[in-house]
Each structure stands twice: as C-alpha cells, then as structure tokens.
Amino acid sequence: MTTLPSLYLGCVISLLPLFCWAQTTTPTPNVKFGQVTEADFALKPVPNDTTAEAVVLYESADSRFEFRNNRIQLITSFFSRIRINKKSGYDQATVDIPLRGKSTDADYAMSLEGVTYTLQNGQVTKQKMDKAAIRIENVADGYRIQKFTLPGVQEGCIIEYRYVLNMPNVYTPPSWRFQQSIPVVWSDYKVTIPNFFYHKVILTGYLPLTVYQSRTVSSQMSIPGIPDVNATESHYAMANAPAFRNEPYITTAGDYVSKIEFELARVDVPGQLTENYSLNWPDIDQTLLRRESFGGQYKKAPYFRDVATAIKAKYPATDTLGRAVAAYEHVRSTMTWNEKTSMDSDRLKKVLELKKGDVADLNFMLIGLLRDLDIDANPLILSTRDHGRINETYGLLRKFNYVVAHLVVGGKDMMLDATDRFVKPGMLPERALNSTGRLIMPNDQSRFVSLTPTERDVEAKSASFTLSDEGELTGELTHSYAGYAAVDARSSYVLRGETLFVEDVKRKKPSWQIEKAEFTNATNVNLPLSVKYALKIPEAAQVAGDRIYLNPLLTEGSTENPFK
C-alpha cells in the first residue's frame, strides 16, 4: 500500500504507464448492485457524522478504453449506494449525468438502473425506478443532462443506481472525487489505460489514499493495423472520507476536496502516430500568442482610434496612469458585460455594434486601446474563484477561464478589468482574486503575477444618539463602505435604487425606525460610499428603576464566528 501524507497534496503521481503492483493490506468491500442487507442500514462512517443528511455507503467507477464503430471510446461504469438520513438529504436521490456532443459523436448513458430500499420489520423491501423517470434536458449548444430521480425516498432508506457512460473520441479518463458534501464510507476508482496513452495523474486534497495499486494487463483493445499492446490497470480507493462543507471566504470546493485528475501527456501509437500533448508554460504562452482568437485580437484593435486621439490630447505621454484610467473608464462606461467568462474572442466588430460582450471581448478592446495610447499592455489570464486555483508547477491551459488587461505603472503591476463598473482602477472584481495569474508576453517575458487584492473589504459605523428616560435612542448613524464593501454596496444602490437599498436595511434591522437616508459618493468609485441614517430605536435600552442598561454595540455586534 502506498500511503500518502495527510497534508494538502497537489502532485503528479506519474507521467508514464506504471509497471508495478503496489501491495495493500486493506480489503476492498465486496459490494454488488441489488444486494442490500439489514446490516447496510446500520453501517456508519468512521468517525460517525451524526449531522449528515445522507451517507455514501459505497461508490465506484471503472473506466476503460475500447475500439468500437471504427473509433476509440471511453467506457465508464458507475455505481453508487447512498443512505438517506434526513429529509434534507432527499436531493441525493436526483442524479444528473452531463452529456456532450451531437449525433454520432454524442456521449450516451446506457444500462441505467435505480432501486430504493427500505427496512420494514426487519425485512428489506425494494422499489425499482421506472424507465419513465429518466429524461434528457438540453442545457446549451452541444450539451445535455440526463436526469433521473429514485422513487419512494424517505428518511432511513437506501438508494442505489448504476449506469455505463460511453464517450466517443475521448482519450482521458474522467476525474474522480473521493470526497463529497456528505460522508463517504468507501470510494473506489479503477482505470485501465492502453500503453500508447501517457497521462499525468494529479492527486489533490488533504486525505491519504487507502488503496493505490497498479499492474500491467492486456488492453483487450484491438485496433486494425496497430499491434496489440498491454495496458496499465490502476486502482485508487479511499475509506471514510468526511463530508466537505463549504465555508465563507474559500474559493471553490474543488480546490480542497480529495480527488484525482488525468491529463493527456503523449500519444505514442506504434508505427502510426507520436504526438506530445504535455505543455510547459512557454508552450502555453506561444500557443496563446499565435492563436488568432487571443493574440490576434488585441494586436489589431483599431476600434477606439478617435478615443485614443482625444485621450492623448488630454494626458501627456509621461502620464501613463492618467491615460490608462481614461481608457479604462471609456471601455467600461460604453460597453456592457454579458456575465460570461472567456479567454477568446473573434467578433470584436460585432461586440462594438452591440456594445455588449464577454470578458475577453471587453478586455481585448481595452488592451487594444491602451496600446493605441503607447502603453505596453498585455493580457493576463487567470482562473476565477469558482473555477479553482491554478498550479504553477504544471501547465494546464484548461485551468484558466478569464483574461484581464495588465500594465506596469511606476514599476508596479496594475490590472484592469472592464467588466465591472463598480471597482476602481487597479482593483479586480472579487471573482478574479484567486492566487496568481499568468501574464502573456512575447520574447519569453511571460511570468506569473500575484493577484493579491490592492483593497480590503472595509465597513465602519459611527453614531450619535440621545437616550430617553424610556430607553429609546434618537439620532444619526453613518455607515461607510470602502474597498470591496463599497463595490457591493454601490452596486446595490445603482442597480436597485435608493428605495430598495433602504428597504433591505429595514428588513435586516427591524428595530430601526429610519426617517431619512442620505447617500454620499454613491456613484464615485474612487471614494468611500457613506449612508447617513436619521433613525429611532425604541426600547434600545432596558429601564429598571433608576438604572438603564444599554448594549453599546446596539444591533451591530457579530452573532456568529465566520471562522468556526
């Protein structure tokens, strides 16, 4: 058995097929579909999580490659058994299977079965899922979701389901999460890869594997004109993985849960094909610079030449910051973000007509305008917080999903994102604050850039009240917002209006009787936003004889520790 240390792991297990068998003393549970016993209803994870709304008793996947219909297909068999403990866990009985592609190249799931088991007077009863419960929904161009819901779900029941997923023309096994939002008693993943596919195997998370084995087997995949090759069969398993629960201020669960991912590094088919897919960072830099939808866009973006002429007339060439801010304000005030992330654009003329586009559209326009102003601006790619962190150790282009403008002012890095009109120049939207980004530049000058926030999230409150003999407070309270707090507050004020802004405050502070609200710097992103309330707070203090008891924090104290 190979036991990995109990700390956060972000390592590449292998680059090449493995030709060894790692021993393990931990037996794999012999769990089969349809064989649920009374003991399964009492099975508990170690340690037992009494708050869990459901528990994964067993789950497995087995991926292998086959040659069917004159093409390679990835075939993965899934099996899951879950006990529902509470009504809040009923959503575990609804399953989504993502499918991609169209017609003959489309993914498809087959052999789908589902059963719900209940324990009644010591007897296990079962209810099979009807085929009519299976449906397919189109969610986007080329993407569908196959959905089903297990029948007869109730507290204490066990559900299980299995299916086989066929994915044509896929050469990389799916990633696998050993840890979920509910406890997992046993999670098992087997993958068999022909030895002409070479993958990086990336294990991340804080929990050690219980089983890690690999051995050489027959690939059992016959391709006309290609000599038969062996395959590497790998087995990964984890026992008693605790539930991972989202907490405030983290990025995305995928950055923390224990999981395994595969990245195609090389294809080496004897006598047929040898192609390297493993990119280092210089490879990624050059790929993007040569890509017409990336480097080809901001290098030839004469869409704001008249604007550039006007800005040059107002700001001298020595005032880089003045020119940059003027360009930034122009793009974000004349264009609207469609709330889509992207790193490519091939329709800037159309976007200019519509005055609306995705993040790449707007920021390539901004980079082009900055360059027209003789500013050395370049794209900086990053991964948004909900997309996961990047790892500087290995180059994976698919880990990025966002691009902003970068320039140097006064010897310091400055990032500009034209998608958000409520952040001030030099700030990135909160969604883009995710460790580091990659600055893409020619002549081997690309580098990583820290995305450490230049501003904080700051709120301050000050008040002047008069306390009556009856314990009522009357006076003024000023609430100031700066940094990222100002972004949120200003966005709410501008997009929803003053009336709804104040109504929200009244709902959150039911004891406040607000008579008037006065806003200062409501639309000036460069200054803190402040709101002065004229208000009364009846019964703010307790009167007991000749004494008055007053909580000095009034309604503003924290009621919960966000870092518990």
TrEMBL record:
Its keywords, alphabetically, are:
Signal
Signal peptide interval: 1-22
The name under which this protein is listed is DUF3857 domain-containing protein
Species assigned in the record: Fibrella aquatilis
Q: What is the lineage of its organism?
A: Bacteria, Pseudomonadati, Bacteroidota, Cytophagia, Cytophagales
